[in-house]
Amino acid sequence: MDRCIDLAQYAEEIGIGAGFGVGTNLTNDFKKLSSIRGKREEADTSKALNIVIKMYSMNGQPTVKISDELTKNTGDAEEVK
Questions:
Q1: Angle 51-56-61 from CA coordinates, rounded to 5°
Q2: Residue at 68 is within a domain
Q3: Has this prediction a pTM greater than 0.70?
């Protein structure tokens, strides 16, 4: 979370719009019930799914993903640039 806050503050300081999130729990906000010998146990958080979801556009505007790994940037090349 600290990195997210730092990035948001930096984007604001240099005058660019930035929207981002940490999405692991986006697809993992459910609980599973386990049972042992027919008795119900407390609900445990399910294991995070190993998937990536990236926004393509918002309100008709293209979106980009800027990664720490330059080869993983996604979106329109001019927008990324």
A1: 160
A2: yes
A3: no
The string of pLDDT tens digits covering residues 55-71 is 788 888 888 888 888 88
Does residue 9 lie in a domain region? no
* Paired strand residues for 58: 61
Domain that holds residue 56: 24-80
Overall number of domains in the chain: 1
CB neighbour class for 55 (10 Å; exposed up to 12, middle 13-18, buried from 19): middle
74 in helix, strand or coil? Answer: strand
Alpha helix positions (H), 1-81: 2-14, 77-80
H/E element holding 45?
strand 39-45
3 inside domain: no
